[in-house]
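agent> fetching stored inputs for the flavin-adenine dinucleotide docking request
agent> found them:
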Amino acid sequence: VTRSKLVKDLIEIVGQANVLTDPELVRPYAIDWTKRWSGSAELVVRPASTDQTAEVVLACGEAGVAMIPQGGNTGLVGGSVPPNGGEVPNAIISLTRLNSLEQVDQVDRQLTVGAGVTLEALQDHLTQSGTGLAFAVDLAARGTATLGGMLATNAGGHHVIRYGSMRNQAVGVEAILPNGKEISRLEGLLKDNAGYDLPGLLAGSEGTLGIVTRIRLRLVPRLDARVTALIGVDATATCVSLVARMRQELPSLEAAEIVYEDGLNLVCMHTGLPLPLPRSWPTYLLIECAGIDGREAGQLLEFLESVGLPDGSTAVAMEGPGRQRLWAYRERHTETVNRLGVAHKLDVSVRPSLLAEFEAQLREVVRVHAPGSTLVLWGHVGDGNMHVNVVGPGPGDDTVDDAVLRLTARMGGSISAEHGIGRAKTRWLHLVRSESDIDVMWALKRALDPAGLLNPGVVLPPA
Ligand SMILES: Cc1cc2nc3c(=O)[nH]c(=O)nc-3n(C[C@H](O)[C@H](O)[C@H](O)COP(=O)(O)OP(=O)(O)OC[C@H]3O[C@@H](n4cnc5c(N)ncnc54)[C@H](O)[C@@H]3O)c2cc1C
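agent> prediction call returned; pasting tokens
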């Protein structure tokens, strides 16, 4: 099948306006959010339904064109864009037009969404529904990240300590496999052990096994009584022990984030925000508790009092704007780092009990392997998840990435806590997955995608 025949076939399926071939229009889709990963694609195709997606997959398959599923393109490991100099021509399949938002089912506490719905659109839809229900996963890319991309990367975010990650929210999934066939489990059954969990396999598969078209989501009670606190402490170890106690004594704990003095100072410089507390602290813990009424706020305040924190070390907010201001110190780290340059972004986890030791060794490893670079760290302290950002080494220089990932693996951690493997980390997968693990992954990949056309080069290292 020639390129012009493919373009003609795709236009027949999705209409002229939804097949982009002009390089100027294709380019923004072919470069990722970090600007570290980019490649070239023949075209972008934008199906608007499950059936259209199936037809697009068949047409690309017939033409021998590799397919890159893409949602909001906010992924941070290069999985949503084509490779630089791939072996076969690529088509980016943008799923953002799969944006149906069905009615909230209040009794079952579920709803079905199209894979291209953004997290923010879902949040607005739930607010407007007046059902008192909410979605459990939240993350800073909410305005652009899609539910399909979030499921494909098994995104985590701020609330994992309370609700788990995306996989835990997907009651069912509908997807198109590389052979154009559909699998669907949208009945919304909480108990359904009839055989292998095929849709579940797609959670965290990063667009390599199938294209998610719709998701049946679990909802949680909307908790409007919220209290947020930013606490200055001396070190990571103090944060970890405080959070361990909170998890024991405060069932309403929903988020526990850690940031550091150097990163926070950069955020203030970049955003113009004032320093949050009367004096600086080496480490800051941002926590949020949420409940139906104000009791949770009282419990948190009592807890903080019982711990005996020094005067002036804590800022507490209960109303929207005040809480958002405290969250900004954490959420605006990402854009601040982007301003500094192209960051090497590593998203790693260790058991929380090892986090303090990990942080100390990490700083040393970065000092040795990327001298003169800027290291900005932040993380989800309750999950032992640290986001490591190193600005300085050139985009092609992986020395510091290698050293950090090896340190993480030595400490029994994961080289990808929540962002996935993408193209960025395939060569390190063996550090945390055995040969037989990787063999099984390849067997699954070959069974579902024998021609290897669905997001090749993502997740799995060359066989
Ligand atoms: C500012 C910022 C904050 C972030 N915070 C967090 C965070 O707290 N926690 C976290 O886990 N992640 C976070 N991320 C990264 C995170 O992976 C993404 O935001 C989100 O999960 C990706 O959604 P997306 O629609 O942009 O997917 P994309 O970037 O478009 O794609 C990501 C991967 O999923 C695949 N994919 C996309 N859509 C589909 C589909 N429908 N079917 C099959 N495969 C698909 C792609 O091929 C690619 O491999 C953040 C990113 C940014 C920019």
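agent> quick read of the result: The radius of gyration is 22 Å.
agent> awaiting further instructions
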